[in-house]
Design a protein that fits this description.
Blueprint: E1 2-4, H1 7-19, E2 23-29, H2 35-46, E3 49-55, H3 75-84, E4 89-91, H4 95-98, H5 117-120, H6 124-139, E5 143-147, H7 151-163, E6 169-173, H8 193-198, H9 201-214, H10 220-234, E7 238-245, E8 260-268, E9 271-279
Parallel strand pairs: 1-4, 2-3, 2-5, 3-4, 5-6
Antiparallel strand pairs: 7-8, 8-9
Length: 286
């Protein structure tokens, strides 16, 4: 496994792989790698890709007072995880490499970022879109792999790639969960044992929503009200949002007549957790 820290060496390694007839598969990460990240690497390997992983805690997607400085970092552990997963190349740049002095260009995706996490994390998706654009330009992948847990981010990247004519296939991969349903996230490490137990309320609320929708409930307001009760009854928390939205536009729906994305963001202690589930009411539960 090759580890690079500069753009030129990364491009040369990718170009050599492509010249040898390899398809380039790319998994962008912020490190603190866990089984969900590994599932993306495995998806790329199954596709026969030359697998490139980036590890970069991107400062531009963190707002004031967010956890950039505290975000978990484990270079040695991350590199071992990549090697065990059969990754071919790890791009591990510094902030100075990714954002040289004088850089003033950003990428903004309109409308899709106006709902869900957008109002609660101003500038977050501009930071995501900008760094992913830069990484795509550096790595020049044929396919890039992202988890469905970050559904809004996935939608933003799909739209950005399409609108800017980037020749990259965006592959969405299923959310990986702990045995009790909690979606895997690097931020789960912030939770103490009581908070970790409480955090399962997000999945329980989503499962409740799925059951209600698939047994005929059509009111989004009814669904979100019932979900809010489940989350609030689990313990002290702050709910950023609980929403039922169109999976393509991320716009709220009032009547559930087709597939919807049910999404929520909840702060338990100092930890902000997100989760979602796509539900099709045509898949009726007996």
């Amino acid at each position: 496994m090759l580890v690079t820290r500069d753009i030129e060496r990364t491009r040369k390694a990718v170009a050599a792989a492509r010249a040898a007839g390899r398809r380039i598969g790319f998994v962008p990460t912020m490190g603190a790698l866990h089984a969900a990240h590994v599932s993306l690497m495995e998806a790329a390997r199954r596709a026969g890709d030359f697998v490139v992983v980036s590890i970069f805690v991107n400062p531009t997607q963190f707002g004031p007072g967010e956890d950039f400085d505290a975000y978990p970092r484990d270079e040695g552990g991350d590199l071992a995880t990549c090697e065990n997963a059969g990754v071919d190349l790890v791009f591990f740049p510094s902030v100075a490499v990714m954002y040289p002095p004088g850089a003033v260009t950003t990428v903004h995706v309109a409308r899709l970022t106006d709902t869900l996490c957008g109002p609660h994390r101003p500038g977050h998706f501009d930071g995501v879109a900008t760094v992913v654009t830069k990484l795509f330009n550096i790595v020049q992948p044929d396919a890039a792999y992202f988890g469905q847990k970050d559904a809004q981010q996935l939608a933003v990247i799909r739209r950005m790639t399409r609108d800017l004519d980037m020749p990259v296939e965006i592959v969405g991969c299923p959310t990986v969960r702990e045995p009790d349903g909690l979606a895997m996230s690097s931020r789960n490490a912030y939770l103490d044992p009581d908070q970790r137990s409480q955090a399962t309320c997000l999945y329980r609320a989503l499962e409740h929503a799925r059951s209600r929708i698939q047994t005929g409930e059509e009111s989004a307001e009814t669904i979100t009200t019932e979900m809010r009760g489940i989350v609030e009854n689990a313990g002290p928390c702050r709910i950023d949002y609980i929403s039922v939205v169109d999976p393509a536009s991320m716009e709220p729906v009032t009547r559930i007549a087709g597939p919807v994305l049910v999404a929520l963001a909840v702060r338990i202690g100092r930890t902000r957790l997100i989760d979602n589930m796509t539900v099709d009411p045509r898949e009726r539960t007996p």
